[in-house]
Fold:
Amino acid sequence: MHIVFAASECVPYSKTGGLADVIGALPRALAAIGHRVSVFVPRYKETHLNTTEPIVRSITIPFDDRYRFCSILAGGNHAGVDHYFVEYAPYFDRDGIYSSPVGDYPDNAERFALFCRAVLEASKVIGVPDIFHCHDWQAALIPVFLRSQYAEDPALQDVATVFTIHNMGYQGVFPPETLPLIGLPWDLLAISKLEFFGNVNFLKGGLIFSDIVTTVSRRYAQEIQTAEYGFSLEGVLHDRSSTVVGILNGADYEQWNPATDPLIAKNYSAKDLSGKEKCRVDLLKAFGFTDKDTGSPILGIVSRFAGQKGFDLFAQIIDRLVQEDMKLVVLGSGEKRYEEMFLRIQKHFPAKVLVKIAYDNALAHKVEAGSDMFLMPSRYEPCGLNQMYSLKYGTVPIVRATGGLDDTVDSWDARHGKGTGFKFADYNGESLLLAIKHALHAFRDKAAWQTIMRNGMKKDFSWEKSAKEYVRVYERARQTRGLIVPEVV
Ligand code: ADP
Ligand code: GLC
Structure:
């Protein structure tokens, strides 16, 4: 099969979160099992390419006010995957991917509508795929254009679409006038289509116009059909629940493996854990800790700072948490209120809490390797990658039992020596504190702790299995469109 991926981020070219990791890794896993995969992303200022020579010179995008002319750059074939970049400097050659320090770019609707149309047009030149696999609201207009403006286009009629939700919290909601501006008909402003409380909702378009909807864990596939997690689209998802599929993300062990990681002080493995001690020393040094190390367990955090991630709970418990024998090491950036909160906490408890407000991949690896425990108290978490990385690094996750966190972490059962981490269910500070206390208690029994570490390190969340599940979904999407006749059983 030929699959075209369309997304707004892809490692190593652009990244703000886990979406980029997925778009960097899943296509490789699909290529490894024999599929042709092409990945399309915008070319941002942060995207470094060896070429500026376009493979498609000029694509005309007819917007209401005037035409825009973009081009496609080819980034080459890596691990069997072709990478293409939509080049339109007025929209993408900016410091941020989605926003400036004062907020979201006001023309995000046009930016990503142009991206979607460019992918459709470029595919006609570079090669029409069997599947468009579109990710999040930024690529959600591909199925919408395909079934409206392009419905009669003979070149694209036979392409099936799969839409993957990485996060229901970001939907791309814009005023109704957006429709004519980006060249979509007014009749899409209907409750059964893109209309959402009087506005236009791109994500909703993806959910309604794609052949199959997937999301990044089984648990989240159920959660988003409820009012608590559906961000007002639970009804839409519920209506098509037979075509909503949860496929767990994988972890890219080429990047995240303590046995081979070049970014950590010393490599180690489940067989020989000794290197982890050096990583601890290195981590404390990287965070500027100069006091004598008393060996207290280190609780690590690496995160985007957003409401989703549950850091409000820290404000409720920090006074009591710092009375425990532990150190908290925090690497993150994002919403100001959380940056300021962690800096305030560090100021109050400098011996216990070390904070770096930054986005720093090398440091993220050091936190994974040098910490004893990893905290993810998310309010919601579609999949979450860091807990999977933590498991591989023998850094025991403490997580809220939601979404992918619930699917990937098994509660420690001391009696049977089973389990890989610590979980809490209720979203409140007390429950988080209790889970941390359980973990700190377990940490004191060195033998038991090594069992938890090793149980986690043995877990295999590689992409191979998930890639095969995606292939089944692609086949189902093609069947849904009547493109392949299902086998008679
Ligand atoms: P989300 O996509 O919601 O942010 P994930 O757990 O899926 O959450 O993925 C987060 C990814 O971003 C991981 O690869 C993580 O290491 C990385 N990351 C998040 N914050 C930082 C940071 N401050 N510095 C470096 N990497 C970060
Ligand atoms: C989103 C989610 C995260 C998920 C990632 C990749 O950003 O917040 O849970 O792991 O996408 O699918």
